Fold this sequence. Notes:
Blueprint: E1 23-27, E2 30-34, E3 47-50, E4 53-56, E5 58-63, E6 69-77, E7 80-86, E8 98-106, E9 110-118, E10 124-133, H1 139-143, E11 153-157, E12 160-164, E13 172-178, E14 183-185, E15 188-195, E16 199-211, E17 214-215, H2 230-241, E18 244-246, H3 250-266, E19 267-270, E20 273-282, E21 286-289, H4 291-301, H5 306-318, E22 338-339, H6 343-348, E23 354-355, H7 361-374, H8 379-397, E24 443-444, H9 445-464, H10 468-488, E25 490-491, E26 496-497, E27 500-501, E28 507-508, H11 514-521, H12 526-536, H13 569-581, H14 585-600, H15 632-646, E29 648-651, E30 656-659, E31 670-677, E32 680-686, E33 691-694, E34 700-702
Amino acid sequence: MSVTTPWADGDPPPGQGGACTPVTLIEGSTFCISEAGGDILPGRPQGLFVRDTRMLSRWELTVDGLPPQPLTVQQDQPYAATFLGRMPPRGGKADSTVLVVRRRYVGDGMREDVTIRNTASQPRRCALMLTAEADFADLFEVKGRAKPRAAATTSSADAALVISSGRRERRQELQITGDENPAISDGTLRWSLSVPGHAERTVSVEVVPVDDGTPMTLRYPRGQAIEQTKPARRLRKWLRSGPQIRTPDRNLAEVLDRSVEDLGALRIFDPEHPRWPVVAAGAPWFMALFGRDSLLTAAMLLPWDPGLASGTLRTLAAWQGADVDPASEEEPGKILHEVRFGPAASFALGGRSAYYGSVDATPLFVMLLGDLHRWGGKDPVIAGLLPHADRALDWIESYGDADGDGFIEYCRKTSRGLANQGWKDSWDGIDFADGTIAEPPIALAEVQGYAYAAYRARAQLARYFGDDSAASLWRKKAKQLKRNFNEQFWLPDRGWFAVGLDADKQPIDSLTSNIGHCLWTGIADKDKAASVARHLLSEQMFSGWGIRTLATSMAAFNPMSYHNGSVWPHDNALCAAGLMRYGFVEHAQRVTDAVIDAAAHFGYRLPELYCGFARDEFSAPVPYPTSCSPQAWAAAAPLQLLHSILRFTPDFGSGQIWCSPAVPTRYLPLRVGGLRVGKSRLVVEVGHGEWELTGVEPVSVQVIPRPASSS
């Protein structure tokens, strides 16, 4: 996921942090950003957004002509918040006697319950006003701080405030209705409320988007108890069925609880395919399906929720490339980078709602299908996705390897596309040790690892379905790729893998965290792994809060950059998994402890990234100002770290589970429940010097000293 998208002009909007932190609510593809007091102020990157369109650009509350003075905001659920404010004391009085409570719920629109509480003994009459504006701006326009659109038209009809876009190509409306028949004029709803002493009055307001004449179904309608709504029930079910953790370490327990809750809120459900959940990349600006982010997040959640992997694969298969379109970078068999629905985004995406400028989503698709099978995915689902996997592999060997050198390269097709198309997709994300920016086409190290793992996954699936000749073919392809990779990417004088090969096939020699992904996928030769592990935990790479994206010894290093020296939790989780795969247990444990400790300084919610300053320089990790939070693969990172220290790997097809926990002492005793392999629900309990795995029947368990790396 990239903050610097090819279609957004200007800098990203301000990030979250400080006393005036904006409040972000999310539910599916809906999110709302407001002031700490609850107001949405015009001219700022705030609003109620539904399917990439800002439906509310202003939402201001006054009582007797004055805004409430904010006291605090409480956010018990990702989709809901309670804003508390007070009205200034009346003349001659020392204290306020009027409390204003705004309870807000978002989901395909918004519901807000406003309560006026009178703490005095005398009755109080209040003039309550809510002023609304809608500009129907595309998300990219808001994010790029474009000039406001021409004012939409407002009217009242059937006791509702109606705001219309007036666009010819796509008419959009917003209908706002409230309890007790408010007076409506000039974009404002007005109530005159009489509140008895020591009592309160509440009015409820609905904000419902209307798309081409069809009102959306509000997730939290007036008159229905919030806990009985479908999203609330679905989130409770998710929390019950997710990982069940017991540990004396508060940091680990709290960050896992927060991660599970955030991941539940980031899920998107297509009404046409409600059993195909996918996860949005992150709030606030990426509440959409992203190929790379969604695939990696689903992979990290496989031990607890195979349904997300299944839904992600089936959804991405439905969008799989079929034609050659340079504007959107679509190619046959290719897996998309992102999906957007706003009108400006569609225009920027070559007239399409999907953009395919990702070099790694396609091999990751095949990798995830293989992982889903190993964790017991249903045979009909796997079989139905095999043709899509084969089309993806065809893309890898044709369009992905356009020059036929055996490696996957990328080079954008138009000037509007992403310059870099791996996970480090900022314009300066790939550079040499001397700081020179690499020229495309670029073959990234980690992408070759993903392709290697994809070949092995396809061989595993062929063997399971009885096609031995195909299994042999894909194993040979994997071995050849591994051999070529280790010959051409290894830098013997440096002791690490090049981050990539440039347009002249020269190794891009900077020391980066990408080499950790080469351990995760198993493409690194065993005799090179120790050197890679040593560099990842060196003073130049390891900040104390995690592994940096770029070593301090590199010319382009900047601890406050997006990809050139920052720390990304998901990147660290994959590096830790790779370290554990090759037997570097203490290295993986150090990474795990560092990231979990960092999470405690962010209220136990790991952001997308944070700055790469050393831990011995500052006592807390330094936030990156425009980091997404919550963000899907950052939220999934603690679950991947937990999975890695459990050293738990199933192969459902062969009826085996490898398990040999290597849990740091600080987390012991540790009990992890809710692990799923096929229909089995497993529990791992780890104590000091002992462990037990229960619920494994009818599969067998093979205990080995440590997980072995792939050959």
